[in-house]
């Protein structure tokens, strides 16, 4: 299976999550990780499954590296029918806008026709832990679900 | 034609300063060069600089960035050399002789002073303030945040926050102080604040704080999330002297002059303060008064003979501070006078007096600060490069810029060398 990990980061945590997901998945799959800043419309192809990892900045805003991607989607409004993705959001639940940055990307992808699959993964930094282990667990569960789906199909 | 690709360069790299700018730079360089020797020096025993000693201990999400950096040393083969001061233990020349690339990331951590606030002024009317020893009861925020974070070189000796304090500044560091000073001692201790520091901060206990900023509320430097967080404090009533509901034209102009992206952002700041004020309990026993548009004027000391139990015998202690209306900030009154027993200034950071590494002294005529280049093989990053502006993420972006410049320069030099070898 081909995975593309799209990450939006502000302080680098989402990027290290993406790095770990590459390590985890690359044993059995073709995996590529792309900073949302560098993502182009050609990146969004139905032959890949997208793992979107995105943090939240300030008052529920997008992290810096996700802003160009959001602007690209808003400006070009591509038809994303046939695209499947899963979301993992990073945030801090001591703020009301917990994980809101990832939701801003999720809303855009869904509005353009892409289909979100599996559990919406989230990590809460309010306990001081790193998101990496939570994200790996989420990805393992997700991939097993995808295998089930493939087996049925 | 069928020769294998040349191995990537593996330069020897020294980074001076293990704060966020230095660690992010190491991350980006490691991503490009898996084989390079990368050594990060720090004058402290432990790495992470501002994240360890400057970030408030209750901001666990930000503190966790240090865990991301742990991977550099635990997994990515970057070496940490602590307790080594570049300039005394090792000279910069020695470092440059031993490494292909040296990156200075020592930050700027000394408190910026307000001349008339940090020295004892005479109380005589009309007399010019006299620069003298620091007045007891006036503290820089950098010292306080280092104390709160257990910095090994700071001592709680002489710290006394009483019942009324004045915080000068309206950036995030000022808001950190407001929040931490109103947090119960046992909660501070649970976040790792040393017992004696928690005790000193809450000894008063504080009944009233004045938070005074130079800018109008629309141009205040704090982040919205920081203000919203204050709403969770127990038993505090907030007030504000900023004008009511709509963005006043003068304020808007002042905000734009101050360089913020007002009015949209500025309106949100005014709204956040108003919501904080309206949402706070009118019967709370502690009050925090925000004052916007006031420029620091002077501090006044109590007479040495009047010193209470907090001061040492004969020690002049702050008793009163005055501010003048910032031009164009829309204040009606000309002066603001506040009585207080302590003053905390959170007005930014600057170069340490007598710093061993000073950017301007090191930069060569061929320096290109836009790329972080100081001299051949010598670079700078973070606040040491740009000055004391911008948050941790801004320094990540900065590190990427400088790492890209280093990668470009090293690989260009390697390509030149290879071309010379091939043509012979």
Describe the structure.
The complex is a heterodimer of chains A (153) and B (424). Chain A is an alpha/beta fold and 153 residues long. Helices cover 37% and strands 22% of the residues of chain A. Chain A has helices at residues 13-25, 67-76, 100-111, 131-152, and strands spanning 2-8, 30-35, 49-54, 84-91, 115-116, 121-124. The model of chain A has no long low-confidence stretch (mean pLDDT 92). Chain B has a six-stranded mixed β-sheet, sandwiched between helices. The model of chain B is unreliable at 121-132, 257-262 and 305-311 (pLDDT under 50). Chain B is α/β, with parallel strands linked by helices. The A-B interface holds A 10-13, 16, 57-59, 63-64, 92, 94-97, 125-130 and B 24, 27, 60-65, 67-68, 71, 223-225, 228-229, 268, 392-393, 396-397.
Write the layout of secondary structure elements.
The complex is a heterodimer of chains A (153) and B (424).
Chain A: E1 2-8, H1 13-25, E2 30-35, E3 49-54, H2 67-76, E4 84-91, H3 100-111, E5 115-116, E6 121-124, H4 131-152
Parallel strand pairs in A: 1-2, 1-3, 3-4, 4-5, 4-6
Helix pairs in contact in A: 1-4
Chain B: E1 12-16, H1 20-32, E2 37-41, H2 49-53, H3 60-63, H4 65-74, E3 79-81, H5 92-98, E4 101-104, E5 110-111, E6 138-140, H6 141-148, E7 164-168, H7 172-181, H8 185-190, H9 195-201, E8 208-213, H10 224-230, E9 236-240, H11 249-257, H12 264-279, E10 286-292, E11 294-301, E12 318-325, E13 335-339, E14 342-345, E15 349-350, H13 359-362, E16 373-375, E17 378-380, H14 383-386, H15 392-423
Parallel strand pairs in B: 1-2, 1-4, 2-3, 4-17, 6-14, 7-8, 7-14, 8-10, 9-10
Antiparallel strand pairs in B: 5-15, 11-12, 12-13, 16-17
Helix pairs in contact in B: 1-15, 7-10, 10-12
